[in-house]
UniProtKB/TrEMBL annotation:
Organism: Mesorhizobium dulcispinae
Superkingdom per UniProt: Bacteria
Name the UniProt record assigns to this protein: 4Fe-4S dicluster domain-containing protein
SUPFAM superfamilies per the UniProt record, alphabetical: 4Fe-4S ferredoxins (SSF54862)
Amino acid sequence: MILSRGTIDGIAAALAVQGLILRGGFRFASDEAAPAGLSGSPAKSALLVGQAGAAPWPYFQHWLERQPQSIANPLDTWSREVLGAVAQEFGARAVSPSDRPYLPFQQWAMRAEGLKPSPLGILMHPQYGLWHAYRGALLFEEEILLPEPHKAIHLCDTCAEKPCMKSCPVDAYSEQGFAHEACLGHVRGPRGGPCRTGGCLDRNACPYGTDYRYPPEAQAFHMAAFARL
């Protein structure tokens, strides 16, 4: 059985109500250890779900206003709720990047959209820059006829100055990787105010996709979540 174009369009419309978008998809190879679909049999295909810019932010905020203040991981909870409802409507299994055991979401994303990681580890999108995210995936036990993704222009290859590697006061990102403890200590410390209120300075220094940059309140929310780790 093949998932119809009309079904995919219906999924996209259901996601758009919450500011989310389809981020491509792919078919699992016959010899691949695919995760289980809705019935428990191996999934045959996946559609990735995410966002461009902060489009879901007002919908998430409206939902959050109705939740108890003690709710843990609210963005993950909201994402699971939204994707779960869509999955139920269209006969899919919804999975999340924070599910345990972890699923290879970054590899799936590169496979679905042909993207590559930036020096910060976030996938660089030719339109959205670093201002996008993946909120989950819908796994189907039907095949999906999708064209192979075009190899996207990797904007980092065209960027000589690499301001994303020079703006952090504690050099959290380098060729050696991400200095998690140094970053966390700075964000939590007395000089971390600009990061706490306006987001990662390295990420904000990237010149690409600035029309999609998250608003300060959204960046502060994500940084607060990071600082609680």
